[in-house]
């Protein structure tokens, strides 16, 4: 196969990947529609490695679990487009709360 054909195939694969991500994201957000407060939904149920975050139904971004050698898992918080990172956290809850704070949302904790 020549370089041009390989480039076309790679581009088609990228387009398919982006489309599937978008479809999964829409489904996760639909499951959070109408919810109150800070909520999480897995991008690909039942896996919790990537979760979409909303606050009162508004999409804030996503969190993803990252494993680094020799360290415990951490959670990366990523703001909705343009997909700027909001930091690395020890728990999914802390990462989700960081997204809410980044958008000026007031966290309501149950007491």
Structural account:
The protein is α+β, with helices and mostly antiparallel strands and 111 residues long. It has one domain (3-102). 37% of the residues lie in helices and 28% in strands. The chain contains two helices and five strands, in the order αβββββα. The protein has helices spanning 3-32, 92-102; strands at residues 38-42, 50-55, 58-66, 74-79, 85-89. The protein has a five-stranded antiparallel beta sheet with strand order 1-2-3-4-5, sandwiched between helices. A hairpin with a 5-residue loop joins strand 4 (74-79) and strand 5 (85-89). The termini are far apart. The mean pLDDT is 91.
Structural class: alpha+beta
Q: Main β-sheet: number of strands, strand sense, barrel status?
A: 5 strands, antiparallel
Fraction of residues in helix: 25-40%
Shape: globular
> What is the spatial order of strands in the main beta sheet?
1-2-3-4-5
Low-confidence stretches: none
What fraction of the residues are assigned to beta strands by DSSP? Answer: 25-35%
Number of strands: 5
Mean pLDDT: 91
User: How many distinct domains?
Assistant: 1
Question: Roughly how many Å is the radius of gyration?
Answer: 17 Å
Specify the number of helices. 2
SSE sequence, one letter per element: HEEEEEH
Q: What is the distance, rounded to the nearest whole angstrom, between the alpha carbons of the first and last residues?
A: 63 Å
């Amino acid at each position: 196969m020549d370089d041009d054909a390989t480039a076309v195939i790679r581009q088609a694969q990228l387009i398919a990947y982006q489309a599937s991500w978008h479809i999964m994201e829409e489904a996760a957000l639909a499951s959070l529609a109408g919810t109150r407060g800070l909520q999480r939904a897995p991008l690909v149920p039942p896996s919790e490695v990537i979760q979409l975050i909303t606050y009162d139904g508004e999409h804030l971004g996503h969190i993803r679990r990252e494993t680094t050698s020799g360290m415990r898992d951490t959670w990366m918080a990523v703001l909705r487009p343009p997909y700027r990172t909001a930091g690395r956290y020890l728990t999914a809850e802390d990462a989700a709360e960081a997204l809410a704070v980044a958008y000026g949302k007031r966290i309501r904790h149950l007491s």
